[in-house]
Structure prediction request, 463 residues.
Amino acid sequence: MKFGGSSVADAARVREVAQIVLSFPEEMPVLVLSAMGKTTNNLLAAGEMAMRAEEGVEALEPLRAIRRLHEDTMEALGTDAVTKAEVQKLLKKLEQVCTGIALMQEVTSRTRALLVSFGERMSTRIFASYLRSLGARTEQVDTIDDMFVTTDEFENGMILDATFSKTKARLTLGPGDEPVVRVVTGFLGRGEKTGAVCTLGRGGSDLTATVIGKALGLKEVQVWKDVDGVLSADPREVEGTVPMPFLSFQEATELAYFGAQVLHPHSMRPAMDSSDLCVRVKNSYNIRAPGTVIGHVRDEDEHKNWLLTSIVQKKNVTMLDITSTRMLGQYGFLAKVFSVMASNGISVDVVATSEVSVSLTLDPSKLWSRDLAKEELEKLVQDFENEGIAHVTVSSGHSIISLIGNVERNNEIMERSFRALGSEDIKVKMVSQGASKTNISLLVDQEQGSDAVRAIHSEFFSK
Prediction:
């Protein structure tokens, strides 16, 4: 069971999550926790502010906020004296790290990874202590203690194979051992060569949970969030969204890529590589909701009725129309187009081709800082002109509307979607079907993007 920062944001939420854990009396789950609330953001802010500190780092507001949150939480929960001493020791060590930053006037990638590790190391100790006060047998576990082995990319460590055997050995109960709830730090590992603390990148705590699930040969990992599973659309823009009972890993990956708040594809890999392990997304505010199962194969009966899973909008999209009558019928046109893209370090979202043209979309917000986006796009266009490949037209202010569903029934999905869009006078500028066979992407003007999502959602989910 994995709980994110909002689930353990303060003493009240810790109590609620503890009740969720204790509602499984026949199980002894392994818990993976993130840092409390906004602690990770405050830790990073403390590192940046420490470089400019003219007085003692103890006065830095992010450090004061971290200390206040954890001390207030321990006081409210009645944390035992031993755990209080451990957390105070970590807080002191944190201040020492920030003092080192202030003296050196720099914060490296390795130091940032060490900084953010304090959040999970404190939250798991406090939570384990509270569970013990309720009568549960618990053990706090640090994944940095010879358990999670990663590459030496300090802020984006990749899990190495040794992790699985070490995790199994560390968490498997021996003969005669008493059942115990393990409370494990998410997001953290140690570099294979340097031995330094490394973080696991985006979705790192979810990844921790799926790695443990695979290592222990479990059937299910539960990821607890603040919604009733994966929804049919963004509830901030669409009324009447519904949770999906099932998603394939492929669908979940497509949804995440195009911006939906699902598990990061990186974190699902251990489950995807396991024949039996699935991931269930549950709501910590509504524990009775069944949530969404993310797994390998749909039930046959469900597959027959499956049409559309979810609709997601990706905003701030730029489109390039690349046209070349000179390349008509010649091989190598696409190779030259993508060679120019590669030389500029640009990945493409969606592609549609014809005999003499290519239309493709970019997301400049992922590639360049805002003030360089225009300059970099102009350079890209100039490179195409210099290569003598094609004429390029750039247009911005678009949205990609991705329809994740059963592409075996794509004729029906397309017919109903275009009918819904036509009724709202929404024009589609580009259509592409993903190679994954689970995604159809439509490009529209961004000012019509939300209306497009609502129109399609109403067509499929309101009838």
Notes: Residues 310-461 form a domain with the VC0802-like fold (CATH 3.30.2130.10). The chain has two domains: 2-218, 310-461. The chain is about 40% helix and 20% strand.
